[in-house]
Specification:
By secondary structure, the protein is mainly alpha-helical. The protein contains nine helices and no strands. It has one domain. Helix 2 crosses helix 7 and helix 3 runs antiparallel to helix 7. This is HupE / UreJ protein. Keywords: Membrane, Transmembrane, Transmembrane helix.
Amino acid sequence: MDDFLIYLGLGFDHITDPRGYDHILFVVALCAVYTLQQWRQVLILVTAFTIGHSITLALATLQVIHYKTALIELLIPITILVTAITNFFFQEPKSWLTTDKPPKRSWRYGLALLFGLIHGMGFSNYLRSLLGREAEIIKPLLAFNIGLEIGQLFIVALILGVAFVVIELGKTSRLRWTLVISGIVAGMALALIFDNAYLKELLG
């Protein structure tokens, strides 16, 4: 049980570590168009992302699939940028004035699932470095994944809490909140992309 708790804590620390803020940025981008009252939609969205990264985290850690680490490190900020950009088109301008409920966009859940597959490979890089030559990896894999989810839910709760304060108590429009947060995330994602060593190598 001690090892289980250790890996659970490592999973939580990994996704919430501000020094490796790329995964935090992605979760922020996912949640930027929602309010606290829409927690059910956020839960579905996060579940789709969870399913995606759980699949590739397991397959990559068990060495069922292989990939180029440098490519994944480039694709992760690209997923952040794309998610942030879609936020600008999430809802037609008029609907912001007439309803609190955004239109249903099932494609958004599919996008979260797809991008989760990419992030899962990024998580596996860290987990494999922790495991080293350890023979039993199923229990650490499960514990690490649960830790990731707890950390992810913590970030989601924090984002929705801040959104509630800014929108409901601060009387800021949802549109302005979404545009500002998504713009900041997009800018940070672009910085990560252009600073990526693999991209610089590709561009010569």
